[in-house]
Design goal:
Shape: globular
Largest sheet: 8 strands, parallel, barrel
Radius of gyration: 17 Å
Number of strands: 8
CATH topology: TIM Barrel
Number of domains: 1
Bound molecules: 2-phosphoglycolic acid
CATH architecture: Alpha-Beta Barrel
Strand content: 5-15%
Strand order of the largest sheet: 1-2-3-4-5-6-7-8
Length: 254
């Protein structure tokens, strides 16, 4: 059975105090209200990871993560943060190649492949993001774009490495816009991605890899999205900034 994972990407929101309050609320509500099998991942800004990790440490189904990392292990890279630092702060997952990193910070697939290696080298799990822009979807080149993102970012891995990877499909046109991909659109892409993994790594690995959907996931569309056979959870932005809306999304996953 593949893992279901609901992750909340806080992006550049919440000061430390607010972040700690949000993490405590989520942990308590998950304890009280959620009997399902999904893993929950809180992904705050770097400065909060250590505190959030302590808050969630008693909950067996809640983990913490980071939004980015350096591809270097250590050294003279001012302003960068290594995977070992994130691990020592308590992170289990690291988002790699979020569309905002690709778009605003020029992160390309070859660089992201190195970041994936760094995450795996520290024994952590990358959440590798892929997704097409509106223009790419409208000109019907989205499958090619997604294939290139997956091939260049992940196909150099071996079988035991790819088994540690989570994929997040996040159509850029659905992120923060209130426009969600329809369940049929998302399912079509998720099946396509799983097939790519199957062709490269075999059906066993493909059947076990977690593929999250991201892009304006809310409590009222989560249940339908999660009913699709190839959608194994969500990477949530805006709706993860409030405990009630985030926990309602978690509860939509059986
Ligand atoms: P959103 O963000 O839920 O606010 O659309 C998703 C993401 O960027 O991970």
């Amino acid at each position: 059975m593949r893992k279901k994972i609901i992750a909340g990407n806080w992006k550049m929101n919440k000061n430390l105090e607010e972040g700690m309050a949000l993490a405590s609320e989520v942990v308590n509500m998950v304890k009280d209200e959620y009997q399902g099998s999904a893993e929950v991942v809180l992904i705050p800004p770097f400065t909060h990871i250590s505190a959030v990790s302590k808050i969630i440490s008693d909950a067996s189904n809640v983990f913490s993560g980071a939004q980015n990392c350096s591809n270097h292990a250590s050294g003279a890279y001012t302003g960068e943060i290594s995977t070992e630092m994130l691990k020592s702060a308590g992170a289990s997952y690291i988002i790699i190649g979020h569309s905002e990193r690709r778009q605003y910070f020029g992160e390309h697939n070859d660089w992201l492949a190195k970041k994936v290696d760094a995450v795996l080298g520290s024994g952590l799990n990358p959440i590798y993001c892929c997704g097409e822009t509106l223009e790419e979807r409208e000109s019907n080149v989205h499958f090619g774009v997604l294939e290139t993102q997956i091939k260049e970012g992940l196909f150099h891995l071996n079988e035991s490495q790819i088994a540690q990877v989570v994929i997040a499909y996040e159509p850029v046109w659905a992120i923060g816009t209130g426009k969600t991909a329809s369940t049929a659109q998302a399912q079509e892409v998720h099946a396509f991605l799983r097939n790519l993994i199957s062709n490269q790594f075999g059906s066993n690995i493909a059947n076990n890899i977690t593929i999250q959907y991201g892009g304006s996931v809310k409590a009222d569309n989560a249940k339908e999205l999660f009913s699709a056979p190839d959608i194994d959870g969500a990477l949530v932005g805006g709706a993860a900034l409030q405990s009630r809306s985030f926990v309602d999304i978690i509860k939509a996953m059986a």
